[in-house]
Amino acid sequence: MTAHPGPGPGPDPAGGRRPLVAAAVARYRRDPRLDVPSLEGARKDIIELFTRTPGYSLLPEPGIDPSEADLTQLLRALCRQRIRPEDHVVMYLGCHGQILENGRHVLMAADADPADEAFLLPTVRLAEALLMDTPLRRLLLVLDTCYSGTGGNQAAAAALNGMERDWTGPGDSGLVIVTATRPFEQARPGALPRLLADAVNAPSTAGRIPAALDLGTVVARAVHRAFVEVLGDVPYGTDATRDWSRAHPYALRHLATHALAAGRLDALLSDVGYLVHSDPDTLLPALPHAHTAAGRTVRAVYTASAVAHRTASPARRHRLLALDAARYGAADLADALNEGLVARPRWAAGGMLNPFLHSVVAGASGAMACGEVDGAAVLVTALGGRVAVLDPATGRATAAFTGHRTRVTGSGTLKVACGAVDGEPVGLSRLPGNDGDEVFVWDLRTGTPRCALVGHPSGLSAMACATVDGTPVAVTPVTGLTFDTEGALVVAADREVLVLDVDTERLT
Asked: Can you tell me the distance from the alpha carbon of 504 to that of 321, in angstroms, rounded to the nearest whole number?
C-alpha cells in the first residue's frame, strides 16, 4: 500500500480529485486501558476499500493515533491549503466516542484524558475544522465511534447553517455523514468498514456497475442500509414481536423502497407484521424484485388481493393475507399470519392464485394495448369512464385521454392501439359515434389530443399501428384478425382494410 503526499496522482475526473483521509486511535497515551488495537486494522480496511475500486489517493496525515491538534489544526490546514472545491473528499475516523451529561457528543483523540472534559473533542468542532471557511464542498465523513449517531446528527446540524449561508461551488456540493451506530448505541470495532465493503462489492459482483465505482453508488447503498436499520427499529409488543402499528408513518410508506435499494427486501418480507401494516402503493412495486423462495411466495400471496389491499384496513388486510396464504398452500407463511387472528383459515381452494402474477389493475375493462413511454412499459385501457394510460407495476394512471364525446366503457365498443409519430409515443382510441367511428390520436405521456382520423365507417372491429415507408399509419378493418409477421403488426380482413395516414388524418 502506497501513501501519496497529496490528492494526486489518483484519478482526476471532470468532477475533481479523490483524496482520502483515514485516521484511527488505537492507543491512548494517558490511559492504555482504553486501547482498541482492532481500529488499526479497521483503518487499513477503509484504505484498501477506497483506494482499490473507487480510486482514492491516501493522504499521509493525520494517520494512526492522531492528537486533538491533528484532528483540528492539521486537518483544517490541509482543507484550506490542499483541497479544491471540486474534490471528492472522504474522511474516516475511528476512535472512542462519548455523550456528556449536557448531551454533547465528543471524540477521544490519542492525547485525550477521559477524566477531563477539556481534553475531549466535540464532534461539532471536527466538522467546523473541516468545513468552516475552507474550500471543501464535497465531503463523505465516516464516524466509527460509539454513539456516533448522536455525533453525526450534531455535526450535520452545525454544518447545515454554514452550507445554507456560504457554500458555493459545484452544483453537486454536499455533506454525507455515515455513522457506525444509531444515537445512544455502542459501536462494534471493525463492523462499519465491513458493511461499507459489502455496499461496494455487492453491486459490482452482479455486473451492474463499471470497474471505476462512483462514490455515489457506495454512499447510496450504505445510506439505504442505514435507513433500513433505523426505520426497522420498531417498538416491541407484549408478544415480543415488532409492533408495526406503532411504526413511524415514513417507515410504513418507504421502508420497502430503502430495503430494495439496500439489497434487504427479502429479509423485510419475512416480517408478517410489516406486510399487514405497510403501504401497498410502495410495497407492490418492490415485490417483483424478491428473489428468494420465501420472498416469491410472499409476492404471489400479497399480489393475489392487491386491489383490496390498497383500500383495506390493517385488520382486513391481515385476514386477506391469511386466507390467500391458505389458498397458496404456503404453510409457514399461513402459520405466521394466523397468529393473532380469531378466525384462522385452515385451507382454501388454490385456483385464485398464480405464481406468475405480476400486478393487478383495479377497474380496467374492455380492449387493452401495450406501449412504451421513455423506456417504460404502459398499458392503455378503459378505466373510470376515460381512456387511461397505466403503469403495469403499480396499476396507477400516468395519463388519460378524455376527448371522446361519449363515456368510455368496457362494453366492447372501445378499441385501442399504441404507436409512435415522429418518435413520440401516441395512443389511438376508437368509440362509435353518430356519424361513424371516432378515432383519435393522442399523446401517451400527457393524454393531449394530436388529431382525429376522419372518414372511417362505423363497425371497426380491430385497430393497429404500423409504419409504411417511414409514414406512421393506423390499420383498421371492419371485421378482421390481427397477427404478427416479422416483427410488424399487420391486420387481415375478410371484408375491408382501411389504412389511415396519422400525419394527414386521411385514408391512404
From this structure: 53
Look up cell 497515551; give the residue. 29
Q: Which pLDDT does position 352 carry in this prediction?
A: 55
Cα separation, 320 vs 185, in Å, equals 38
Q: What is the rounded distance in angstroms from the CA atom of residue 423 to the CA atom of residue 372?
A: 11
CB atoms within 10 A of CB 114: 16
Mean pLDDT of 49-65: 87
Label residue 59 by pLDDT band (50, 70, 90).
Answer: very high
Question: pLDDT at residue 493 above 50?
Answer: no
Does the pLDDT at position 382 exceed 50? yes
Judge whether residue 215 has pLDDT over 70. Answer: no
- Distances from the Cα of 140 to the Cα of 92, 159, 175, angstroms: 8, 13, 6
Q: Which SS3 state, helix, strand or coil, does residue 192 take?
A: helix
First-to-last C-alpha distance (Å) of the chain? 73
> What is the predicted pLDDT for the residue at 207?
40
Rounded to whole angstroms, how far apart are CA atoms 24 and 42?
A: 8
Q: How far is CA 385 from CA 311, 331, 403, in A?
A: 21, 42, 11
Mean of pLDDT values over 422-429: 84
Distance of CA 243 to the CA centre of its chain: 25
Cα–Cα dist 480/489, whole Å: 13
Q: By percentage, how much of the chain surpasses pLDDT 90?
A: 30
Judged on CB neighbours under 10 Å (0-12, 13-18, 19+), 115 is: exposed
- Give the per-residue pLDDT at 318: 95
Cα(258)–Cα(500) distance, integer angstroms: 48
Cβ-proximal residues to 439 (8 Å cutoff; 6+ apart), any chain = 428, 429, 430, 452, 453, 456, 460, 463, 474, 476, 500
- Asked whether the beta carbons of 177 and 143 are under 8 A apart, the reply is yes
Does the bond joining 193 to the residue before it have cis omega, within 30 degrees of 0?
no
Name residues whose C-beta falls within 8 Å of residue 401's C-beta, 6 or more positions apart in sequence.
Answer: 386, 387, 389, 427, 429, 440, 442, 447, 449
pLDDT digits (tens, 9 = 90+) for 165-194: 455 555 556 788 888 888 888 888 888 888
For the chain, give the mean pLDDT. 79
C-alpha–C-alpha distance, residues 231 and 379, integer Å: 34
Q: Would strands 365-373 and 174-179 be described as parallel, antiparallel, or unpaired?
A: unpaired
Q: Beta partners for 346?
A: none
Task: Check residue 33 and report its DSSP letter.
Answer: G
Q: What is the pTM of this model?
A: 0.51
Which residues lie closer than 8 Å to 418 by C-beta, 6 or more apart?
369, 370, 371, 372, 378, 380, 425, 426, 427, 428, 444, 465
The residues, ordered by sequence, that sit 6+ positions from 492 with a Cβ below 8 Å of its Cβ are 477, 480, 481, 483
Mean pLDDT value across residues 42-46: 94
